[in-house]
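Hi C.,

You asked whether I'd gotten around to modeling the 753-residue construct. I have! Everything is below, sequence then structure, no commentary in between.
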Amino acid sequence: MLCSCSVNKFIPDKQYLLDEVDVVSDSKEVKPSLFTSYIRQNPNAKWFNLVKIPMRIYCISGKDSSKWMNRFLQKIGDAPKIYDETIALKSQREIEKAVRNMGYMRAVVRLDTIINKNKLKLSYNIKTDSLYRINHIAYQIDDWMINELIMQDSVYSLLSEGMPFDVVALDNERQRITKLLQNNGYFKFNKDFIVYQADTVRNTFEVDLTMKLLPYRARKEDLPVSHKQYSIRNVNFITIDDITRFDNDYQSYDSLFYKGLNIYYKDNVYIRPNVLANFNYINPGTLFSEQSVQNTYASMGRLRALKYTNVRFNEVMGKDSMLLDANVLLSKNKDKSIAFEIEGTNSAGDLGAAASMTFQHKNLFKGSETFTFKVRGAYEAITGLEEGYENDDYQEYGIESTLNFPEFMFPFLSSAFKKKIRATSEVGVKFNSQLRPEFTRTLASASWSYRWTDKTRSQHRFDLLDVNYIYVPWKSNTFKAYLENLTDRNSILIKSYEDLLIVRMGYTFSYNSANNSQMIGNRNSYSVRFNIEESGNLLYGASKLIHRRPKTDKGYVIANIPFAQYIKGDFDFAQNLLIDNRNSLVFHIGLGVAYPYGNSQALPFEKRYFSGGPNSVRGWSVRSLGPGSYKGADGVVNYINHTGDIKLDLNVEYRTHLFWKFNGAAFIDAGNIWNINTYEGQEEGTFRFDSFYKQIAVAYGLGIRLDLDYLILRFDGGMKAVNPMLEGKDKYPLIRPRMSRDFAFHFAVGYPF
């Protein structure tokens, strides 16, 4: 029905459906993709850049708007785009202007149309002609102080002789100089005081450029004066309830003086004076600096005890210089809150519910320390259990508490270092109890970590100490018998259900180019994540000093508890290539390697990799793929067995906007997990360089995403294409697919990568 419907009834007489729009350039340097944002009228969107399904949905509707079905179809569909010559001419002029601003001063953009019945193809043809270049750069700056500042900083100039006469580059240089002067006391300076004079060299394509500095005028009718440098006289921190009602009258406030800062408050000091001093970058007696103002905004924004921050300057006439009083207005945030949360859970297909209550205090010690206390309970009905268990209930109870400090809490660190790093410190404790039909397990942990962001907005996390104690007080007789039988099949799992101590240290680096201010305007983005952690090395070294050999077959122990020793590294890279404003192509690679040694024969179960699921190879359900070509005992999938020491994920996903808030995706996934060591019963799961590529699983599928702005609900359906767990013809279900065997459905929140 969608294919047979006609758009003719929605196309007025003597008008045309805008079928295609294209930009063509006669120069390799002037790429058509640079000008797509200037096109004001585009054709109807295509699903996966192939078929105009949204328009065809619209065409199903009738013209009678009184019928609710017609209104609904028109709302979710896309009305046919009728060619508008007026809009096309505006786009033509804007593209022509943009090309000329690149230095092609004689560029011309021509509109070409091809009409086929009631459809029209539109093309913007760019004829660039010759490129104008800068021949000579001169400066006409009458203010000697400003001239000296600009000349001293000229090594960072964005302009050079021989470069294209690019208007964008000229404006960027104006902004750079403006920023330089604003950071050196010129409080009232803006880029409009910098102008250019360009003269073309006769009979050439070269330009002589002169930068001029205009004198200061507050208003056009004022007499011109020289630009003034401003210094900071007083810095006043004022704590108020409503910033919008502040009238510069703070004489009725209580006050105190701390390290050159005046602190005004009512009733009590909401934030300790030393915290304000450590987070302030505007200092009395220094020249005004816009960068210091922005640093103060950013720094105060990290204090969760504050709702808003506003910096206002009052001009003061000095005897020999211009002075400013800086008023830093601080609006208090609500310091206490309680939140309740109810959620549905889905663990490997087992459905359940969970409820939690969270208490938070955002200013515990009047230093914007955030204290969080959370209580959580969950219940799931477990399916697929073997016979012999008394019930199929899963219950979980947990308590956790964290204390977050808005600075680098470490002895012997200077205030200057803390300001430079802009870190947060966190101390946390956690207790979790899991009651399953097979066993009961308790996890108790304590951690101390740091997070910080550098100038490139790269994010860092350093786990100084993370102690986890896993205690398994009870196992059912059926599960004990199952573990004993594993001795002949997969002995690695036996240790996963014994008491264990994990004392780890780790570092994580992550970067997303989309968060970098320098990438604004760049349509493509990428992200990188790297993590490395180690566990047990210090404990192992100390144990070695005390005892040459371990007393038991469990290795060295602390308080009769064996501890894990391993090293683990992870790497993730994702590249997002934006085709247009409705379509994008995303590539992802994920690699993880973990190696147990010394005191550990195998990785702790919580640290082992798994494959399959909504964020991995989507033709398999969670924890059902690998390691290698291992297919499980008697062909039965058991998530406990499908774990490994090495993980590889390779993904490519085509994303497209469908209609309303719905997006679609087509994907191909590949990957698997492997063991480093060879374990009895899992010989086919060992990683080998000469054969691992033969064990890479491949899947393909389609997905639908509901984008609710604050939340993305994702539904993916994956089909197996290459199944390393099978042999012969069954290894390639792409040729002979079978839904009951090869299909996996996934529901998740957020994008997979």
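If it helps when you're writing up: DSSP finds eleven helices and 29 strands in the chain.

Thanks,
B.
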